[in-house]
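Homework-ish question, so no full write-ups if that breaks the rules, but can someone show me the predicted structure for this set?
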Amino acid sequence: MKAHKVVGLTLGALLVASGCGGGASNGQTEIRFIWWGNDDRAKVTDEAVRLFESRNANIKVSTSFQNFQNYFEKLSTEIAGGNAPDVIQMDYRYLNEYAGRNVLLDLTPYVGKEIRTADWDQGFIGSGKLKGKQVAMPLAQNSTTIVYDPKLFGAAGVKPPEIGWTWADYKEVAAKIQASTGGKVAGSTDFGGTEDVFETWLRQRGKALYTDEGKLGYAKDDLKAFWQLSKDFRDAGATTPAELVTTLNAGAEQTPMGKRLSASEHSYDSLYGGYNTVRPDELKLGPYPSDSKETLGSYRKPSQLISASARTRHKDAAVKLIDFLLNDPDAGKILGANRGLPANLKIREAVAQNLSGANKVIFEYQKSVDAKLGNAPAAPPKGDGTIYKLMQRKHEEVVFGKKTIDQALDEFWRDAEEALK
Amino acid sequence: MVLAQRRSQSVAYLFLGPWLLGAIGLTVAPMVVSLYLSFTDYDLFNEPRWVGFGNYAKLFGDDPRYLHSVGVTLRYVAWSVPLKLVLALAVALLLNSLRGKGQAFFRSAFYAPSLLGASVGLALAWRAIFDTWVDTPDHALITIVLLSAWQFGAPMVIFLAGLQQIPRDLFDAAAVDGAGWWRRLWSITLPMLSPVLFFNLVLETIHAFQAFTQAFVVSGGRGGPADSTLFYTLYLYERGFTEFRMGYASAMAWVLLVAVAVITAVLFRTSRYWVFYGDER
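A: Not a homework solution, just the prediction itself:
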């Protein structure tokens, strides 16, 4: 009878012993930092992290990255599995999703102390705040933009994007380009399923994606008009075919623009580095078309934010890394404008002094549109991540002719309201 | 005597130990927990909240996308399982007729794709090869069916072993009676092989219901385009891990478990009419 217990205990002890083997400590702290991006971002991020390690010999940082599409799935799995990374790159759209579930460390006690903010735009710091708690720090600023191929615009004899051009202008220009390539290259990438584009378009009409109470900030007719606009582009032969719609939101190399199948694409200026890796020095950035004289709809968005896990066992090391990435001049030099304009204004200025390549294009674009940019709205409510995908899916069903706009709209509305409950 | 028996029992437990711990810790316990979670609203990070049969009611009453994913999965099972088994059987028959002449080589060669099995790299390669196909809703599911059918190695090897068990004298006797190739296939090979066929059918059906990796990779994790490859498991994953509705996902998992169990039971029921174990009459 006792044999059972003996066997059980032995096995238990073995397991415990092997489990504990991993935790050898010799004054070294090890933290994990995860983020999304592509190879060019990996290069500068790793370089900055190595510099951090060399200055903090007792802290070891392991990093890993994903493309945006898979990032949040991996992150939620890791957090749910009790294996949360210590330092987490965050997206504005997912901030409420995570902070609202209490998985992000409240950084309020560190702001202005361990995390220096003297050289910051105080309003911009607020974009990482939810209900009075600083759950993230904005890493950099970006805005929506049109990435375009000036050669194709030139060859078709049309004017490149400039402030003042309208959606009708865009449609005409895109159709001309598409015709001039014999239909081989689309004039624009289909934008109807992308919530970022919809948001910019809505703001041009004085509306917003969400109300302050976290409800949908627009009416069914608004989305209907937007999907109709996208359909007008398709009908005019001005945009990418249906099969290419599904490849949006992947890495730059997988977008129609990266594959040389489109002459212009709605995007973010902070993604220019990715485009520039795939198509070096070929592409430019221009303003969104807008039917409003006053605004482009684009705003000073925190391109990415950085948070610490609420469950990290190394708060100090995590906070130290966050401050280093945000405020260290040398880190700033290495990171450049890869994630957008640095949040720290001194670093932004320093980076602006010595611009080349992708950074230069991004800075010049931001400068050219700055007067027309708005301030960031409150971070989207919980459920926005679901709605983001929902919009893409429902639009896809319309493009493939599986649903009419009205059918897709009804289904979108039902599921979106459900997601916000 | 009794003591020796006890000792041999404890030795058995000792050897069973690692497996038993794994089975309890990694299978039984999570299953029990997921059964509990299926009756709750659970967002992964905070305490679960009891909702009774709410999740189950919503599945069948108020979630068209769920029913759509059931349809996609059934279509996938109905296409991929027969296709894979027919391929596996055909190749096994071919290899069996080789008898020594390079059989080992071809057996390994045809088995290779199955070794790569649920590999992500393979699905990525598939995605690249069928680039435009996977991006159109009407063809995307077909590409995944083909990917699965191509990995027919495991049932093929089992068929081959089964074929080699069939006594030669049955064929010799049939040949003497003037039976042709088809006749021998229909009246000897298939009946003698039916237990193996049944085994493969059950196994592949269960696998097909659980298919995940291929669809996940080929569709970029979205079940797209336009939900045309929204497998049951993919939707379950999306609900659980990207929408943080783990209670709902658990309910889905339990419905799948019960459905697969029922289908397997039905297969066993029908087996008495077509599976021939040799010792019956």
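Now go work out the reasoning yourself. Hint: The first strand of chain A starts at residue 29 and ends at 36.
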